[in-house]
Amino acid sequence: MKNWANFTNGILTIHENLIEKRKKENNQNITCVYTEIIAGEELSNGTFLVQSSKKEITIEPAIPTRINLEQFVVFCRDPSGYHFYNKTFFNFLPKLEKFSVRESEFSNGLIILSVSGMSHNQAMRHLKQSLKFAAENDFISFSMFNQETNNNWGNLMKSFGNQEKIWESVRKINGSPTFLHTDSPKFSKMFGNQFDFHSNLYHNFNRQHFGHVNNCITDGSVFLKNVLFRCRHLNFFRLITNADVYETFLDLISKWNDSIPSSFGNSLLETQISRNKTCTDSEISDENCICSKVVKHETVKRFGPND
Asked: InterPro entries in the record, alphabetically (predicted)?
């Protein structure tokens, strides 16, 4: 599928190929439109059914047009109604004016990619694009920390903070806008309104109408090579828990603001966890403990009556 539309810095432009397509098919009624994605009925699992607004706006090729909608979709179709191009977009600009951080300024940011309820092997097979993005942007991996319970939701909440959540701390400490993009209807419903930007309409439209979720939002990047080395060097072969991950998040964002002291005792960037730390110390049950010791068992050879 050709890339018939380009959206950059709030400006939407339809490619000049549309003019060529009209000439080739001798049909000037081949058009592209954009329209807002709107919420519909909420299902019992918290998922919102979404649809495109009936208020479609025709956009001509090679004419840059400023878009004031946050989550919208572009359709290109022929007079019979056949869609030869469909693409959703997320627009940050309409809300950004209220924030102190401007587009031209350099500011720190924290991207958290959380995968829950999936084994390491499943992630390697099915999350190739996400893992590639993480590798290209030097993400710190906490893939082998010790979860505290069998409850995926409970572990996730401990990593994000029991009281003040990490996204609230980011806003308070640095004044940065916050953005949520999630597959979880439960997480979206509980916390979506706490974020400045929430791509629930964009994401659900892709799933419900296009049958795919590969319209990845990849704005922003992180550069954590030095931090990553320090984290690995300090706490190699140590027992790391959800609480330690949360403390590390807090330590990272506190470094953005010199007026805020960094005193997070369990941060993996500042503290070397004791080799003697046990699952019992961290209130982790034996069945969830990934620490193990080599135990030698004596082998007893049994002889039969004829041996």
From this structure: DUF229 (IPR004245)
Q: Hey, what amino acid is at 157?
A: M
CA distance 303 to 307: 6
Contact between 195 and 178 under an 8 Å Cβ cutoff? The reply is yes
Q: Per residue in 248-274, pLDDT tens?
A: 888 777 776 665 555 555 677 777 777
- The 3-state secondary structure of the chain reads CCCCEEEECCEEEECCHHHHHHHHHCCCCCEEEEEEEEEEEECCCCCEEEEECCCCEECCECCCEECCCCEEEEEEECCCCCEEEEEEEECCHHHHCCCCCCCCCCCCCCCCCCCCCCCHHHHHHHCHHHHHHHHHCCCCCCCCCECCCCCHHHHHHHHHCCCCCHHHHHHHHHCCCCEECCCCHHHHHHHHHHCCEECHHHHHHHHHHHCCCCCCCCCCCCCCHHHHHHHHHHCCCCCCEHHHHHHHHHHHHHCCCCCCCCCCCCCCCCCCCCCCCCCCCCCCCHHHCCCCCCCCCCCCCCCCCCC
Both structure tokens of 40: 């519909």
**Whole-number Å distance between alpha carbons of 204 and 211:** 10
Quick: pLDDT tens for 71-122.
Answer: 999 999 999 999 999 999 999 888 877 666 555 455 667 788 887 777 777 8
For 46, other C-beta atoms within 10 Å of its C-beta total: 15
pTM value is 0.71
What amino acid is encoded at 112 in this protein? I
CA dihedral (287, 290, 293, 299) in degrees, to 10, reads 60
What CA–CA distance (Å, rounded) separates 241 from 238?
10
The token pair at 292 is 């193990």
CA distances from 184 to 33, 144, 160, 238 (A): 30, 22, 15, 31
Token pair 């056949």 is found at: 82
